[in-house]
Amino acid sequence: MCNIDLSKFVDLVPEKFINQGQVFDFTTKFEEGDTNISVISNVIQEDGIYKLIIKGNYKRGSTAKVSIGNQNSSIEQMYIIATKSMQEIIPYMITKDYPDSLKKVAEDEKAIECI
């Protein structure tokens, strides 16, 4: 799986991304075709734990949750963990999860036709 350099695509402000829940929408073409694939990332706080949520923005898209810190973690530490996680997970969503979701959607539609 290839890594992507998210800094080429967006200027995330750590404070806004971590504390204010700024949404990062990474969109790319699928296999050099006409289909745009979107993966959305944002940070939430649950019970004092900061969690990065990465969601495939397509039918049957998967969601990944990564704990990136707590109240004792600095914004910079959490931002580094979040961006490194995004560099690993977003390519997986595009190259593996999206094709798998297409198969699941096709199976769903075929099952509906059989009813």
Features:
single chain; 115 residues; alpha+beta; 2 helices; 4 strands; 40% helix; elongated
Protein model, in words:
The chain has 115 residues and is of the alpha+beta class. The protein has one domain (9-114). It has 2 helices and 4 strands, in the order H-E-E-E-E-H. Strands 1-2-3-4 form a 4-stranded antiparallel β-sheet. Strand 2 and strand 3 form a beta hairpin. It is elongated, with a radius of gyration of 16 Å.
Summed over residues and divided by their number, the pLDDT gives a mean of 88
Q: Number of DSSP helices?
A: 2
Q: Quickly count the domains.
A: 1
**What level of helicity do the residues show?**
40-55%
Cα-based radius of gyration, to the nearest Å: 16 Å
Strand content: 25-35%
- As residue ranges, the low-confidence spans are none
Structural class: alpha+beta
Give the H and E element order.
HEEEEH
Question: What is the subunit arrangement here?
Answer: single chain
For the largest beta-sheet, the strand count, sense and barrel status come to: 4 strands, antiparallel
Distance between the termini: 39 Å
Strand order in space, largest sheet: 1-2-3-4
Overall, the morphology is elongated
The tally of beta strands, per DSSP, is 4
